[in-house]
Amino acid sequence: MASRPIRRPVSDYDLVRRFEPILRFTEGELYFPTDVDRYVASSSLRVNHHDGRDEELLAEGEVTLENLGSLRPLPPGAVEHLCFAGTASLQVEMRRALREGNFGGRARRRGWVPGQGRLARVGLLSRVVDAGFALTLLGRGRVPTAVAALAEKKTRAIDARGQIHRYYARVIRDGGWIGLQYWYFYRYDDWRTSFEGVNDHEADWETISVYLYQAEDGSLTPRWAVFSCHEFAGSDLRRRWDDADQLELVGEHPVAYVGAGSHAHYFRPGEYLVEAEVPPLKRLAALIKSLRTFWVKVVRQGTGAGPALRNVLAIPFVEYARGDGLSLGPGQDRGWQAVLLDPAPDWLTGYRGLWGLYVRDPMGGENAPAGPMFNRDGTPRGAWYDPLAYAGLNLLLPPPAERKRLAFERRRLARHRRRLRQQIEEGLAAIQARGVVHRAYEGFPGLQGEAQSLAAALAAEAGALKGKRRELSQTEAVSAALGHRLDKLRRGEDDPPQGHIRTLPSPSTLDELRFVRLTEFWSAITIGLLVIGFILLVQLAPGWIVAGGLTLLVVVALIESILRGSYPRVIRDITVGLAALTLLLLIYEYFGVLLVGGLVAGVLVLTLQNLREALAPTGRHSRRKKSAPADPAKG
Amino acid sequence: MATDSKRPPRPPVVSIVVLIFLLQVFTFAALLWLQLAGLGLRGIDSLSSDLAAAWLQGDRWIDAVLFGGLFLLAVTSAFVTIGLARMRPWAWLWGMTIQGARLLIGLIAYFRGDPYTFSMLIPLIAVLLLDQVPVRRAFGQEGSPRG
C-alpha cells in the first residue's frame, strides 16, 4: 500500500508514533514488550568474576535506572549482570515447580498448540547433530529450567499491577536517510523451555526500523522496514515499503510476526524452520560444503539446485510466528506507550553489562543479552552505532539523492571525457610530428644516436596515449551505464522489490510427507534405534561393525525416504555416497598401480606428441607442396 | 521404416552406460550358468569369503539364496538395460538402485576382508556416468526434488 507523503514539519516523537510497527504474537506467548523500569526494580545487580564466583553488588529493590547507568570499576574478566529470577530462591522454586509439575509445557497451558515436530521436517544427519547438541546442554552452562518458572511467576506478579507495552525509539539522520529505530524489551526469552526452541535467557532486546527519505518536494516518504531476526544480517533484514508480497502494512504501520519465545521478527505469519549453526562445527560444515561444491561443479555430478548445498550440520528448530495471539499497536488489541531516547539516558549509554542472568555458556545463547548499544562482550552493537550498515543501506542512497548523484557523476565523467579527448588529440599530434622527424633520420648514420633516443621516447609516449584511449573507452562505458540507470529512475521504474534479498525465509510446509504421524514417530525414534543397533553390533558381532553399521544406515535412510516420498533423491544420494567411498578405497588400495599407470600414460602422451612433431612435414616441404598447385603456368 | 521421431537423441555417454549394463548382464548370466553347473565357487568367493565357507560346509540354503539373488539381479539388470537403451526415466532410478546394491555388497565384502576390491570398479564407473548432468537430464532427473 502506498504511503501518504508527509509534507508538514513534524517532531521526532510524532514521526516515531506515525510509523510505529504492529507486533503480532503467537497464542501462548507470555512475554511482551514492556518497560525496563519495573524489571530493573525487580532485579538484583551482580558481578560474575573470572573464577566463577558470583557476587551481589546491589540487592533486589536497590537497583534503579539511575544507579544502573553509573560507571563501576570491574576486575579483569568480570561480567556485570542483572538477575531477574533470583538465584537464592532457585532450590525452593525448583521444588515448587516439581510439585506443581511446572517444568515443561507452560506454553501449552497458555494455549499454544505445537505444530508438526521439527525432527520430522529435517533429514537424518540434522537429527544426529541435534542429538549431539541436546547432549551438550548437559555439559555447558544453561539457564536452569526453574528460572523460567520463576520468571513467569514474577512477570505475572508485575503485570497484575498493570500491563505496560512500551517501545524505546530514536531517530537517526544519516546518509540522506531518516531512520526510525524501535527497541523492544522483553523480560524473558523462553524459546527452549516453552516452545521447543534453541535457548532460554533472561531479558531480550529486539529492534525494528523504518527508513524514510525526503522527496524533492520536501515530503517524507517511507522506503524500507528492517526487522531483527536471529542470524540474518544486512540487506536480508529489510523489505521495501511497496513490496506487498513481503511487507504487510496497516495504514502506515508495518506488521511484524513475532517468534514465540524467541521474539525474532518475521514479515509473514507461519512456522519457520530455523537452522542454528553450531560454532564448533562451523569449519566442518564449511569443509562439507566445499566438498559438495567440488562434487557438483568440478566433477559435474548431480545438481546444485535447491537445498543441496545447505548446511547439513546445523540444528533444526521450528519458529512459531503464527500471529494468532495478542496484537500490539495502533488499532490492535492493545496500544503502545512510546519513549523517545533523546537524549540517550544513562542506563542505555553507561551500563555495558548483561540485562539478565549470566550462566557462563561458551556458545553464548543462554547468557542474557546486553542493552541496545552493546554486544554481550561490551563492544558496541552494530545495530546502534552503524544502523545503515546493519540494514545493508550504507551502499544505497534514497531515490531522489540517487538521481542527483547519478546526474552529477555523469557530468563529472563528461568533463573527464572532454579532457581525455583533448589530451589524446594533442598527444597524437605530438607523436605524429616527432614520428616525421624520426623517419627523416633514417639513412643518416651520424644521427643514429638521436634516432634511437627519439624512438624510445616515442614508444613511451605511444604507450601513454594508448592508456588514455583505453581510459576514454572505459569512461564512456561507465557513463552509458550511469545514463541507463538515470533514465530508468527518471521514467519512474524501480528495482525489483526483492532483488536485494539473498536469503528469503518462507514458512515451512509438510506437504511432501506421505505419512505424517508415522514420519513424526519414526523421526523421534531413529537416533535411538541407530544407537541400539550399533551397541548390538559391538556386543554380538564385533567383526561386522563397519559392514553392519553401513547396512544399518542405508536401511534407515531407505525407510525414511519411503516415508518422506523422496526415494529417488535418497537412492541417488546413497549410491553416490557409496561410490565416493568406493573411489577412496580403490585409490587407497591401488595407489601404487594408479601412480605407475598415470606416469606411464603421461610418458606415452608426451612421446606421442614428440613423435607427431618430429614426423610432421618440414616447413620447406610443406611450402613446396602448397605452392605446387598455385603455379598453373608450370603445369 | 517407422521411427520414433519424438524420442530425444541418446547422449553418447548413455550408450557407454548401456554397454556397461550389458556387460554386467552377461557376467550375471555367466555366474548363474557356473552355479547351475556346480562350479559357482569362484563367483561366490568374489562376493564373500564367508559365503564360500558356507558353501564348502555344504550349506545349500545359502547357495539357493545366492542363486535367487543372482537370478533377480540378472533379470532386473536385463530389464534396466533395455530401459536405459530406450531412455526410460524409471530405468535411471533402477539402474542407480542396482549399482548402489552392488557397491554396498562390494563394500561389505571389502570390510569383511575380501581382497577382490577391483570388482567394484565397474559399478563405480556406472554410477559416475549415471550421475553426470547430461545423463540425468536425458532421463528427466535434473529437476527432481531435493528436499
Taken as a percent bin, the fraction of beta residues of chain B is under 5%
Shape of chain A: globular
What letter string, H or E per element, gives the SSE order of chain B? HHHHHHH
| Secondary-structure-derived class of chain A | alpha+beta
Q: Spans of chain B of 5+ residues with little confidence (pLDDT < 50)? A: 1-5
What does the secondary structure layout of this molecule look like, with pairings?
The complex is a heterodimer of chains A (635) and B (147).
Chain A: H1 12-18, E1 22-24, H2 36-41, E2 44-48, E3 54-58, H3 65-68, E4 79-83, H4 90-100, H5 106-109, H6 124-139, H7 145-160, E5 166-174, E6 177-189, H8 191-195, E7 201-214, E8 220-227, E9 238-240, E10 249-250, E11 253-258, E12 265-266, E13 270-276, H9 282-298, E14 315-321, E15 327-328, E16 337-340, H10 346-349, H11 382-385, H12 387-390, H13 399-441, H14 448-490, H15 516-540, H16 545-564, H17 567-589, H18 591-615, H19 619-627
Parallel strand pairs in A: 1-11, 5-16
Antiparallel strand pairs in A: 1-15, 2-3, 2-4, 5-6, 6-7, 7-8, 8-9, 10-11, 11-12, 13-14
Chain B: H1 12-36, H2 41-47, H3 49-56, H4 60-85, H5 89-111, H6 121-130, H7 133-138
Helix pairs in contact in B: 1-4, 1-6, 2-3, 4-5, 5-6
